[in-house]
Structures are given as C-alpha cells and as structure tokens.
Amino acid sequence: MRIAAALVLALATALLVAACSSGTTDTPSSTESAAVDPKPVLMPSGQSAVGRDVLHLVDAGRTDPWTPGTPRELMVSMYYPAQRGGGAHAPYASAAESRAMLVGLGLDKEVPAEVLASVHTNSVEGAAPVDGSHPLVVLSPGFTAPRFTLTALSEELASRGYIVAAVDHAGESFGTEFPGGRMSTCVACQRTDEGEPLTTVAETRARDVAFLLDRLTGPQPSWPHANLIDRTRIGMAGHSIGGAATAETMATDQRVRAGLNMDGTFFGAAPMSALGDRPFLLFGTDAETRPGGHDPSWDRAWSELPDWKRWLTVVGTNHSSFIDTPMLLEQAATPQDSLSGQRAVEITRAYVAAFFDHHLRGIPQPLLDHQDPAYPEVRFNNP
After folding, report:
1. 8 vs 66, 76, 77, 106, 150, CA distance in Å?
2. Helix (H) or strand (E) holding 297
3. Handedness of CA 191, 197, 198, 201 (dihedral sign)
4. CB atoms < 10 A from the CB of 22, how many?
5. Residue 188 near residue 203, CB atoms below 8 Å
6. What SS3 state is found at 347?
C-alpha cells in the first residue's frame, strides 16, 4: 500500500520546487506556507461537456465495519456527459477535505488547505445531461485517498459518453465530508495498523459497490438521471487497493462486466478465476517488472485470469502517477527518468478509455493489442 508515501513525495516535491523558485531551500516554518500554485485539472478530450452531481447514500441494512453501531455510508460523485452551457464549475475538494488530507500526510503546516480546494475542474454542477443510454464505470480510489484524486479520469470518461460513479468509502480516506460538515476520517488506517487484514478493505468495498449499483440501477434509484444508465454495460476501475476491490467486486457481482486495476496489490479472498469470461486489465508501474520491485500478487492474478487479459506497464511512473496529485502540484520539469504528471494522466486516460470502449461498447481498440508509437512509455508485459 504505497499511496500515502507517494502523495507525501508529490507534495514534498512541490514544496521544494516552490522554495527553490523563491531563492531558498529552507523548509517553510509552521507560520509560513509554501507558495504552491496548483494546476487546473487537464481538459478532457471527449465531445461532451461534463456534469457532476454528489450523492450521499446510507445502507441502513449494513453496519459500518470501521465504526460499529452506525450504518454504512458512502459519498459518491456522479460525472456524466452534459449539454454545453453556463453554470458553476464543481469544486475539486472542500477546504475541510483538503485540510484532512494534508493533516494525514503531515503537511498541514506547510501547505494551505486552499491549495487543493481551489483547483479548477471541468465539471459543471447539476448540468443538463445528454440524452441516451450510457455505460456506467465505477471508480474506487486508493487507501487513504479521497475520491477527488480520480477527478481527471472521471471527467475524461464522462466527456466520452460514460456515466462515472467515483466513490468515497467512509472511514478509509484521510477525510470525507458528509452533508452538514460532518467529517469521516481514516478509522481503517488505525485498524489495519493494529492487524486488521487489508482483505477486509477490499471485501468492504465490494459490498459498497454492490449497494451503490442497487441504488443506481434498482427500481427506486437515488440519482435523478439513473434512467440514462445502461444496466447491461457496467465496468469498474480502481487505484491501489481500489484495484483490488475491483477484482473482489467482479468475483462477487456479475453486474460488473469489465475491470481494471491501476497499480494495486491484490487483496481479497475471491480467486481471479471467479471472474469467468469477463475481461480484466493490469495497468501499473514498470517497477512491477523490475528485480526487487515485483508484486507477486500480480503473477498470481495473471495465472488465474481465464480469458481476455492484458498486463501493461508505464515506464517512468510511480504509484501516484495514475491519480491527479502529481499533475496538480507539478511546478517544474520532471527528471529525465520519470514521467510528468500531465503525461501520466494522458496515458492513463487513453488506456482506461480504450479498455472500456472495447469491452463495454464493442469498439475494437488496437491500442490494447500492441505497442502504439503515440505511447512509447507503455509496454506489454504478458508473461
């Protein structure tokens, strides 16, 4: 589970660059915040504008595993293809959520909470949706990471005609804000530090997604535009343990037709063979194939996947390259042996979209069959 360390590195690098650009390498004091100026979320490439709604869902029939005695709750950002027009852009994160993440990373004295809260997104709150029947993709973030770290990917998919449900799993991120300002913090962090297996996280998320799908595709849906969802074309992708949760969800819920793991170790009790003939993509760092950096759970998963499968690695990436943070806080040229945050987002968007276009829309994607000269950083690693 490398998500927290990766975010610390990205934020610390941004602070160092900011300090160097002002002519000093001194660490900012507790009373001085570094002048970190976040970049906007990269514009999506699809034809549609992007709308966003936020759902608060309560599973009254299930007790929260991290806070016993309370029902399980989720916060979900719904991104969707929207009609073009005016409207207020959705916030990237609230100041409270931004502050909670910085506190969790130990950087709250150096980086003001407004840094992430002020990021410009491309989504319009409550925009009128594009009519039609659209595939649904569920996105699950890494452990400790809020759902807003997947904004760039969510907006890209929505601009291409997908409905996207980005999920915050309560008690598993540094900070998730619920209606009324109530904050959920990473109770699961303490529990796992005390010995709770990470399989509990993956299995809990699988139940979260099953509940979410019930509320989006059932007879009394919680989202006003649920009639736009094509219930026969549902996919899921996740970063880090969100990728493990994707496999666990598919093993226990036949509604999810295609899945993708972005650089996550596989935790979960269900074997990958339980996916049957449903496709799965392993998409990770090239560290997965380097001596000493190999993740044996990927070998096991690959050997158990029975049908359509791909194992792609992206040269020059680290664990956080598949989320927004490096792109937003990038303030100088990256080293020659690593990928810029923007380029990593471009590659992630291209391959995730190609995967779902192929398997949820039936559009052939040569990008998934051989190396493409437009993306020389991506290598096929199919043992």
Report:
1. 25, 25, 25, 8, 17
2. helix 296-304
3. negative
4. 11
5. no
6. helix
**HSE value, Cβ hemisphere, 13 Å, CA-based, for 146:** 28
Distance CA 7, CA 115 (A): 14
Q: Name the least confident of 187-196, 346-355, 370-379.
A: 187-196
The phi, psi pair for 100, rounded to 5°, reads: -60, -40
> pLDDT higher for 166 or 335?
166
How far, in whole angstroms, is CA 104 from its chain's centroid? Answer: 18
List CB contacts of 368: < 8 A, sequence separation 6 or more: 281, 310, 351, 354, 355, 358
The 10s digit of each residue's pLDDT in 244-269 is 999 999 999 999 999 999 999 998 77
Neighbours of 340 (CB within 10 A): 17
Question: Taking a C-beta distance cutoff of 8 angstroms, is the pair 223, 282 a contact?
Answer: no
The Cα–Cα gap between 282 and 288 comes to 11
SS3 352: helix
- The rounded distance, in Å, linking the Cα atoms of 158 and 48 is 8
- Residue 312, beta-bridge partner list: 283, 380
Q: In this structure, how many other beta carbons lie within 10 angstroms of the beta carbon of residue 276?
A: 10
Question: What residues have CB less than 8 Å from 141, skipping those under 6 apart?
Answer: 147, 149, 150, 166, 167, 168, 173, 238, 239, 240, 242, 323
Could you give the CA distance from residue 239 to residue 241 in angstroms, rounded to a whole number?
6
The region of weakest confidence among 119-128, 146-155, 336-345, 356-365 is 336-345
Measured between alpha carbons, how far is 15 from 8 in angstroms, rounded to an integer? 10
Q: How far apart are CA 12 and CA 2, in angstroms?
A: 15
Q: What are phi and psi for residue 55, nearest 5 degrees?
A: -115, 140
> With 0-12 CB in 10 A as exposed, 13-18 as middle and 19+ as buried, what is 96?
middle
Q: How far is it, in rounded angstroms, from Cα 218 to Cα 226?
A: 9
Strands 183-184 and 176-177: antiparallel
Q: What is the pTM of this model?
A: 0.90
Separation CA 114–CA 328 (nearest Å): 13
What is the three-state SS of 80-124? Answer: EEECCCCCCECCCCCHHHHHHHHHHCCCCCCCCCHHHHCCCCCEE
